[in-house]
Amino acid sequence: MEENIKLSGEARTFAAIDIGSNAVRLLIKQVVEPGQHPKLNKALLVRVPLRLGFDVFSDGRISEKKEKNLIRLMKSYRHLMKIYGTDTYRACATSAMRDAANGPQIIKRVEKASGIRIEIIDGQEEARIVYENHIENMKGRKGNFMYVDVGGGSTEINLISDGGLVCSRSYNIGTVRILNNAATEDEWKRLRKDMHDLAQSYPGIELIGSGGNINKLVKMVKNRDKRYPKMSVASLQEMYDTLKPLSVEERIETFDLKPDRADVIVPAAGIFLTIAGILGSTTIYVPVIGLADGIIDDLYSRSFHQEM
């Protein structure tokens, strides 16, 4: 559900808040060239590692301390949106808030305290937003592609064949969930079976990766193609084998990783490698897309069609 804040100035400004299991992001973009295929420039990106999933996947609920921090953060984000003259925003919470027993109560208290209305979206909606973010780039493109978005609490996949969406699926397998031993074997079996079935029906699937971890990994691997963000699955395997034996502290020191990235980056690589291995994919394209980008594209599209 989109919310209006203030119409300020000539340039239209949209904002997205992505409340994930590991981090909470605010993305603000301004419309530079309007139209059906607009040009939007990033005005601000703020990422705060609240790590809500560590509470939820171990205790089943969000702690009072993290709730207070979430309220503080939403107040800050609202001020930032006003400063940037945001016209419209949408705030979406994903896997951690979906699973939290006290999630619905928390978002009510957040709205009362900060004025920010949060939607808890399901995995299918999350997958749709990520997919539609780059649907225009896929139309008319021949071949089979799978978007894989790995988050802290869940993994979303979208299979595209010859430019058309075949299916969107969500799995309760994510980096924070894995670190908390909360990704069940049944869910892993469901993912593996689905990947096997899709590989048989749609041969030669190429992977398109999404999420903060794969964005970081593509910058870390050797022999990457700097002209277009992509890496071989073999390079990802090599990086995974290098990172996994190291402690979190060693990963931070050796690769200059932030603490909240150093622990989740290994299970993220493992998820991508599992899917790539089953599909027989040899390359992962990483166009730096994410839920927040998709939310803003969605907001702009609705606004554009309403004005026509």
TrEMBL record:
GO terms (molecular function) for this protein are: pyrophosphatase activity
Return the CDD domains for the record.
Answer: ASKHA_NBD_PPX_GppA
Q: Which domain of life is it from?
A: Bacteria
Query: Residue limits of the Ppx/GppA phosphatase N-terminal domain?
Result: 50-300
Enumerate the Pfam families for this protein: Ppx-GppA
List the InterPro entries hit by this protein, alphabetically: ATPase_NBD, GppA/Ppx_hydrolase, Ppx_GppA_N
Q: What is this protein called?
A: Rod shape-determining protein
Species whose genome carries this gene: Candidatus Cryptobacteroides excrementipullorum
